[in-house]
From TrEMBL:
It comes from Alteromonas australica. GO terms for molecular function: isocitrate dehydrogenase (NAD+) activity; magnesium ion binding; NAD binding. Residues 5-331 form the Isopropylmalate dehydrogenase-like domain. SUPFAM superfamilies: Isocitrate/Isopropylmalate dehydrogenase-like (SSF53659). This is Isocitrate dehydrogenase. The lineage of its organism: Bacteria, Pseudomonadati, Pseudomonadota, Gammaproteobacteria, Alteromonadales. It is an enzyme of class 1 (oxidoreductase). Pfam families: Iso_dh (PF00180). Keywords: Oxidoreductase. It comes from the Bacteria. One of its GO terms (biological process) is isocitrate metabolic process. Signal peptide: none annotated.
Length: 335
């Protein structure tokens, strides 16, 4: 059997710390991956003169699976979001962000289990047609939704729900105001929902969704929505379970996938052995499921659950006093 090769982008700030912790976990659980390391972000800018070198793109294209730490895109003109560029380059149309409650996180809610399925390449977030007038007094951007893009992402959400035995899919929109773009998305979502009579289909305006997530999050199961709304809602959902440090992300295309920590690079704590690696560890668990290694993913989640619930060597954001290495060792001990 050919050894699975994984492109690993350690990233900026705390990225190397949490990625290295994660590869130790993957090795311990017996994945036997071969890792091909590649640069992106500020590290790549310093080493190669560009944020996203061609060598990195070639490695992702070759291996088809990548694990990525947080990247920093410099603020200002002339720099395009690295994450947006990767999604477009590899046609990673589905962004999959699950949130799951872990006892011991001191989150406001218990028993949260919500998956946000976000269209990843279209809509306002894609940055299409951005123009600023010469005098700096006007700015424009374009939002574009296609029937094909909407159908692919909504179908992805329903297939995911069916595969995981979930009961409800909620299509989130703003079709009452954005009658063209959001209107088309909602129309397609309704059509796709009719093909899945075994799954309850609901729809909700995005601002009401935000309120309902805060007031009664347990009513949600799978949320499917457009790019910008999905970006906002998935962060809100992360807040329900303890923050972005507990939220993984998967970017999935037809033949390529990138799994990542969804939080920032936190340069203020980089190299200080303070970062919580849970987000990228959970992203690695998503990667294992993608590679049909679900049994190993469950072992990792079970170890995380036990460490966090018992408070054994947890990081400060989880109420403990341990560092990244101690937290990682607690996981390794259980595995």
């Amino acid at each position: 059997m050919t050894q699975q090769r994984i492109t690993v982008i350690r990233g900026d700030g705390i990225g190397p710390d949490i990625i290295d912790a994660t590869t130790k976990i993957l090795d311990k659980v017996g994945c036997d991956f071969a890792y091909d390391y590649a640069d992106a972000g500020l590290v790549a800018l310093e080493e190669h003169g560009e944020l996203l070198p061609q060598e990195t793109l070639d490695l992702i294209a070759k291996n088809k699976v990548a694990l990525k730490g947080p990247l920093t895109t410099p603020v200002g003109e002339g720099f395009t979001s690295i994450n947006v560029s990767l999604r477009k380059q590899f046609k990673l149309y589905a962004n999959l962000r699950p949130v799951l409650s872990f006892k011991g996180t001191k989150a406001r809610y218990e028993d949260i289990d919500i998956i946000t399925v976000r269209e990843n390449t279209q809509g306002m977030y894609s940055g299409l047609g951005q123009v600023v007038s010469e005098d700096g007094n006007e700015a424009e951007a374009m939002s574009k939704i296609t029937r094909d893009g909407a159908e692919k992402i909504v179908t992805f959400a329903y297939e995911l729900a069916r595969r995981e035995g979930r009961k409800k899919v909620t299509a989130v929109h703003k079709a009452n105001i954005l009658k063209s773009t959001s209107g088309l998305f909602l129309k397609v979502a309704r059509e796709v929902g009719e093909r899945y009579p075994d799954i309850e289909s609901t729809e909700m305006i995005v601002d009401n969704t935000c309120m309902q997530l805060v007031m009664n999050p347990h009513q949600f199961d799978v949320i499917v929505t457009t790019n910008l709304f999905g970006d906002i809602l998935s962060d809100l959902c992360a807040g329900l379970v303890g923050g972005l440090g507990m939220a993984p992300g998967a970017n999935i295309g037809e033949d390529c996938a990138i799994f990542e920590a969804v939080h920032g690079s936190a340069p203020d704590i980089a190299g200080k052995n303070l970062a919580n690696p849970t987000s990228v560890i959970l992203a690695a668990a998503q990667m294992l499921e993608y590679l049909n290694m679900g049994d190993k993913a469950e072992k990792i989640r079970a170890a995380l659950k036990d460490v966090i619930e018992t408070g054994d060597r947890t990081t400060r954001d989880l109420g403990g006093e341990a560092g990244t290495t101690e937290f990682t060792q607690a996981l390794l001990d259980r595995l």
